[in-house]
Amino acid sequence: MKEQPAIPLVILDVQDAIDQPVWNNKSHPNYVSVIQRLLQHWRSNGWPVLHVKHDEKKPTSTYHVHGPWNGIKKEVAPLESEAVVIKHENCAFIGTQLHALLTSLQAKRFVLTGVVIHNSMDATIRAGKALGYEIILPADATTAVPVTGPHGQCWDALTVYEMTLAILGSGYAQVTTSDDVVAQFGR
Questions:
Q1: What is the pLDDT of residues 65-92, one digit of tens each?
Q2: Using CA atoms, how far apart are residues 18 and 69, in angstroms rounded to an integer?
Q3: Can you tell me the distance from the alpha carbon of 122 to that of 164, in angstroms, rounded to the nearest whole number?
Q4: pTM of the shown model
Q5: CATH of domain 9-184
Q6: Pairing relationship of beta strands 174-176 and 83-87 according to DSSP bridges
């Protein structure tokens, strides 16, 4: 019987930019430590890790390609052997090598972590689902920030987080916890 390929861990947009004031009041400020734990688990098992780095073209963005906060956070910095996918849009599949890398790994599913759940994470999950992937989303390995609507209504980060997870969990991703992911992919 042929062994199943290892499930890749994808870390999305965890860059110094996310610590700038525009991203304050996160619903889950400890998400990075959760990602670190998953990253350590993946590395200790020799499983594939893919980092996605957002290089925003807009100069006013904290993620601006030439900005001071564009680097991947040191807590989750890639090893030389780990692929770094560069993206310029909110979706990690648009104009990137992510789909090709996952295909080369024979991955039909992957674990997605990163920021923020209602922006790049959401866009990537929806596109990944449309491409036929099963996406495993440990809810404690992501976060949200408050959102203000076009008419001034503001939703707090926890409401945004819970609503987005409810929507994504209704048919786009398997929403779970990091503890369940480690138990499911334990060794």
A1: 999 999 999 999 999 999 999 999 999 9
A2: 8
A3: 8
A4: 0.95
A5: 3.40.50.850
A6: unpaired
